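Researcher: For the record, we're logging two predictions in this thread. I'll number them. Prediction 1 follows.
Model: Prediction 1, sequence and structure:
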Amino acid sequence: MPQILMPALSPTMEEGKLSKWLVKVGDSVKSGDVLAEIETDKATMEVESVDEGVVKELLVAEGTDAVKVNTPIALIPAEGETAEAAPAAKTAPEPAEAPVVPAEKAAEAAPAAASVPAAPKFEAQSDPDLPEGVEMVEMTVRRALNEAMAEELRRDKDVFVMGEEVAEYQGAYKVTQNLLQEFGPERIIDTPITEHGFAGLAVGAAFAGLKPIVEFMTGILPCRQSTRSSTPPPSSFICRAAKSLRPWCSVVPMVWRRALARSTAEIIRPGTATYPASRSSRPIARPTPRACSRPPFALPNPVVFLENEILYGSTGPVPKVDDFVLPIGKARIACKGADVTIVSFSMGMRYATRATEKLVAAGVDVELIDLRTLRPLDSDTVIESVKKTGRPVTVEEGWPQGGIGSELSARVMEQAFDYLDAPVMRVTGKDVPMPYAANLEKLALPNVDEVIAAVNAVTYRS
């Protein structure tokens, strides 16, 4: 069979990104040769040829996102075979000619059209913290985190990375790819699966003046240990570090990185945001270069990065600036509006953004806010938006009780009660343990329709 199909690299994989072709038309390949690199929401994998032949045609361009499993991606007929022609793309029908309107009628219609207010449009806002006119490049979250750590490792010899499988295996999710080759085993350190052990080691290293970046392979590991204590294991070390501060050591700069699956995300995010003055919690929702860079090490507190593993392969615009630093504790207004305020973070921004696009198309002027940081929580930006719209909606994947939406609801009630035209609506995951089966997991999570329904409720639309 001459067709090469998009492979399923895991039982749950439905689509992936064909990030790079390693062969070109006319190349001879044999069994075992690597044909392409494919990115999924978890890692970058290589696709190998299973037969010998000559590359006749590459059907999918490199860089193409959301390529469905079993989609033909290349034609490599074996010797003696002829490649079937790829199905021709359907040509779009020619647009019909617009009807000619007499000048007199056009003039009569002009005043009426001018009196109708312009319909709202979804316009993504640029980051106000960026220099004006900065060049933007497309980059995955995985690559943005990797480059951020590499830049800081080059800039400061006291920075080092440690964690489970960060070195030899290049990271469980390939976020630390190629760091070992550039910086060596003294600065990129593999650890056993002993969270208590290397968390304590990181605190000691920070006290001694070093700047550790600590990666937990997945949020499941510290969560399992948390069943034997009241808080996740690293918190005990951080709290001890905070209590032990002395004039000779007023700074404990550490970065804690956790890859979160959906089964643990709802446990970790609100939890890390509750510890007083011990850390900032930054859920990764879009590529943020230098995200692990100078701001965390300039603070006297450890900083926790919560990275949804599903977002590692997602792409977005990244500023091409050498010295760009995102402020900690500052939300971003992703879309400006005047009718309703939607507030979200991390994975919730996917639902919120898609819902905003549909609502704006339906005539609702939505203001969308990406929190970016959970502690400190930028309630000032949210409050100012609510004073303008009078109708807040929060979106998160976590459980309803004790979530970030609950905290925002309390702050809005305390600081903007007189401005409310409707109660705060929360869109959250269902109040059930997270199912393992993919179809049940989908039912337990929020969706775009639920966000739209919440907005319709606070704006009193049917």
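Researcher: Logged. Prediction 2.
Model: Prediction 2, sequence and structure:
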Amino acid sequence: MRGLGYRKSIWGCLDRRISGGKIHRGEGCELGIFTAKTRRARGRREDFSPFCWISGKFLLHVGGKVWLDQRKVRCFYSHRFEIELPRDHPYPMDKFRLSKEMLLVEGVLRPEEIVEVGQAPDHLIRSVHDAAYVERVYSCSLDRKEALRLGLPITPELYTRSASEVEATRMACRAALEEGVAICLAGGKHHAFSEYGSGGSVFNDVAVAIRDLQLWRPGLRVMVVDTDAHQGDGTHALLAGDPRVFTYSIHVAPSGARPGVAGSMDVETVRYVEGEMYLRQLFSTLAAALDTFAPDLVIWIAGADNHHNDRYGQMMLTAKDLQRRDEVLLKAFIRNRIPVAVLYGGGCNRQAEFTAKIHRNTVAMAKQLAAEHRGLWASQDKLALSA
């Protein structure tokens, strides 16, 4: 199959530069790609977007004219993400609002970068989920077993928040294809199956977004990179057998009672894995996945439940380990012009507001790297045009 020529040098740091297929040593990236091979496999990235980058800013070509756009990363959000839960419920439903407020107060994001979304159309949700299940969620008629499996109160607001989350992920994926990087300030509900929800996942926003993209661009190759502490079993099941989709998941080994669902590549860690071992597994296996499958888009479910103080993650990563994860993966995608849509994934930290802080850190890293490398891309494109 087509591959990207990743070198599996974990701590050696191979950083691809646009230089006629040559590899130069760089800092801060454990994944390196050969430029020439990448472009032969996927075509020039400009072919996928009406945008080009000059002097670190977007130039949007519309109707033969060039319009200057400020350097920014669009982040998709809805005030409907937060619904009321019982006082003793462990899920941090306020993490979406809190992380957004952190990003605004600290100046990481500007208000105009946050895009309020509505609800995904019902027919899109039904393209992945059983119509009867969707109707039961909408009408609040899930039975007791379904409600217990889902783990959330069955209210009219549940359908609204879930459909809004699907729409935010869908819009983030489309924006990523156009602009290189986009973020859903939620998303990653990877435990939702066709006929039922599970573990807080009502609708599988990733699977719906991919089916929507395939209607828009039928030949699009999408890789789901899931670094949430738990396997993306619902995503695996819904996308199984589709040669245009590659599902990668690194997670704690499932228990015998719940063996999981096979994806394109599943990487199991030991329970309570520490940071160094986890990062070595992640970097080497993701390099192998990208050697196997050349994506036109990566949908990255980041996850905050890998932290050692999470209630359910069963991993022992520190905040520094998670920032290292974010930096290396985002550099691998952004430097190599692979569009990436960043989603939150799960997290249920014992310390109040810390889940939101981890999500905030991921968004801040994506914003920083996107801004840095658009300037690099611009200089490379100008050199290519003058050659």
